[in-house]
Amino acid sequence: MTEKSKTITALIISIAGVLIVTVAVVLITPNYFHLKNAPEQIEQVEVVGKRIEEDGGDSYNLYCITFKFFDGPEKEFSADRTYYNAIYIGDTGRLTYKERESGGGRFEKFEKDPDCGGGIIEPHRREDMIEMVMIYVTSASFLCVLLLALFYLVRDRGFTSRPEQTAQVKVIGKRLAVFAFEFPDGSVKEVHSPHIIMQINDAGSLTYKERENIEKHIKREKSYWRGRQFVRFEKDNL
Questions:
Q1: Residue 88 and residue 71 share a domain
Q2: Contact 187, 210 (CB under 8 A)
Q3: Helix residue ranges, H only, 29-115
Q4: Of all helices (H) and strands (E), which one includes residue 74?
Q5: Is the domain of 22 the same as that of 2?
Q6: Could you list the pLDDT tens digit for every one of the 238 residues in the chain?
């Protein structure tokens, strides 16, 4: 596989990863988006029940409050612990909530009647926080892909029209993915290579490209290997 093919493959994989994240956001969190767009409903209610679903600690417990509507039905909503503790069974007031057509809803706020102490109980909207996090993660993923694509385009721009060069070389040094090759004339050139399987003292045929005005480029970048692009290495048969 050529370096160009590897670049294209890396971009395709990155874009596919972002698409997977986006699809996961849409599939896993549809309830949040539906609830956000649902209209608010206001009813006069009475608190008739409270319960806690324990799940390994206060931070993970689910705090639920049951409200009885004055026209008969009861609905249960989850709330933050702080607001759960501020609402008591027997409290009456105006409940503002949202509800999906498919069922389930979200407690928006509860305004107590004056004879119950008054005040407005408005819980934290964790769903909105999750939605914002998902949006930020997806946006950041798209930005990373765009930056990655720009990086590859800029990196390869100086090599596209350059001819391939082939020489018999020997690997005499390496650091991370940068290899130092000794050429027949005794010169040493560094080339970045994704082929980590090469070892010190390996000999073979190296095919590579060099930027035009490489010395000027190397001086500006202060890195020898950035002026060369690895194409392939054919190891000699011992």
A1: yes
A2: no
A3: 30-37, 81-86
A4: strand 74-79
A5: yes
A6: 455 555 566 567 666 766 776 666 665 555 555 666 778 889 999 999 999 988 766 667 888 999 999 887 898 988 888 888 889 999 999 999 888 776 667 778 899 999 888 888 776 555 556 566 766 777 777 777 777 766 666 655 667 778 899 999 999 998 888 899 999 999 998 888 766 678 899 999 999 888 776 666 555 444 544 678 888 899 987 6
Going through 131-220 in order, the beta strands assigned E by DSSP cover 165-175, 178-182, 188-192, 203-210
Going by DSSP bridges, is the β-strand pair 188-192/74-79 parallel, antiparallel, or unpaired?
unpaired
* Angstrom distance (rounded) from CA 21 to CA 34: 19
Reading the block at residue 237, the tokens are 């048969």
Beta-strand ranges (E) seen in 91-235 are 92-99, 105-112, 120-121, 165-175, 178-182, 188-192, 203-210, 228-235
My answer on whether 117 and 196 are in the same domain is no
What Å distances lie between residue 147 and 11, 13, 120, 136, 203, CA to CA? 11, 14, 46, 16, 36
CA 153 to chain centre: 23
pTM exceeding 0.85: no
CA angle in degrees (0–180, nearest 5) for 114-119-122: 140
Q: Which residue range is the domain that position 176 belongs to?
A: 165-235
CATH number at residue 207: 2.40.50.140
